[in-house]
Structure formats: C-alpha cells, structure tokens
Amino acid sequence: MKNKTIRWFAAALLGCVLSLQIGVASAEIKQLNNDELQTLISQGVAVIDVRREEEWRHTGVVEGAHLLTFFDKHGRYDVGSWLASFEKIASKDTPFVLICAAGVRSSSIANLLDARLGYSGVHNVKKGINDWIAKGKPVVAYGSKP
Questions:
Q1: In a domain, 61, yes or no
Q2: Are 72 and 105 in contact (CB under 8 A)?
Q3: Any alpha helices (H) in 26-74, and if so which ranges?
Q4: Listing from the earlier edge strand, what are the strands of the sheet with 46-49?
Q5: Contact by Cβ (8 Å): 70, 20
Q6: Residue 21 pLDDT
Q7: Nearest CA to 70 among 84, 60, 57, 59?
Q8: What is the CATH number of the domain that holds 83?
Q9: pTM for this structure?
C-alpha cells in the first residue's frame, strides 16, 4: 500500500511539473472583442483571415486583412504549406490577429501557433467576423483593391 501511494504521488508530481513546463513554453493567447480588434488594426497589426474563399466572397473581409485559408471545406489542412505563407506575414515575436467566421477555427489555429510552435504575439477575434459585421463594423468586398 505504501509503495502505491509513493508511486501515485510521484506520478502526480511529475504531471504537475510537466504541466508547468508546458505553460512556460507558451504565451497567453489574447482573445479580442471588436473594439480591441479595431485598436490593433489602427496600430498596423496584421490581421489574418483564415476562412475559405467562398466565405470571403459571401461576407467581405476586414480591410487590409491577409487572406490565408487554413481548413478546406472538408476540414483538411496542410500546416507546412500554410506556415510557409504565414511566415511571410508574421514572425514568432510579431503580434498578429487571427479571424474566422465565429472564432472557432481561428482559436484552434491560435492554440497551435502558441502552444505547439512558440509564437508569442497571438491574438484571436473571439466572436469572429460574424460579430464584427453584426456590430456594424466595416468590411470590403473580397478582391477589391485598396
């Protein structure tokens, strides 16, 4: 019985240490509302819209956003290919904003970039472009030139 207790305690302690190390390795993802997004846009922080082309066409996009689809319509993705394009926009220490329709896909991508790949300036629009539009914030038509 004593050996079981010691093993359980050691396993619990190891789990705590590992979770602390993982926490240190990742920065905090900043969840943005519309006003915070607008502030970062005015400061020149890159906005990366990870939706698909048909979504951009349907709703329009935040002016100046980089359009970089992550998931295809079947939910498939190619991290390596996406990162090759993404790294032309942001580096590991550059602040950037991810946006999708409702904040779900962009949140998943934010977690990947933060916790797994070590990006520190990750911001996510928590309710996505749907809320941005619902609150009367401006969008431009997909494909329009600034």
A1: yes
A2: no
A3: 34-42, 53-59
A4: 30-32, 122-125, 96-99, 46-49, 66-67
A5: no
A6: 40
A7: 84
A8: 3.40.250.10
A9: 0.81
Measured CA to CA, the distance from residue 122 to residue 114 in angstroms comes to 7
58-108 per-position pLDDT tens digit = 999 999 999 999 999 999 999 999 999 999 999 999 999 999 999 999 999
Q: What is the pLDDT of residues 15-56, one digit of tens each?
A: 333 333 444 345 699 999 999 999 999 999 999 999 999 999
DSSP string, 104-120: HHHHHHHHIIIIIT--S
Considering only CA atoms, give the Rg of the chain: 19
Tokens of 53: 């082309």
Q: Would residue 10 count as lying in a domain?
A: no
Q: What is the domain count for the chain?
A: 1
CA–CA distance, 44 with 73 (Å, rounded to integer): 30
Check: CB of residue 139 under 8 Å from CB of residue 38: no
- pLDDT single digits (tens) 98-109: 999 999 999 999
Domain range for 108 is 27-134
Residue 105's φ and ψ, nearest 5 degrees, are -65, -45
Question: Rounded to whole angstroms, how far apart are CA atoms 125 and 33?
Answer: 6
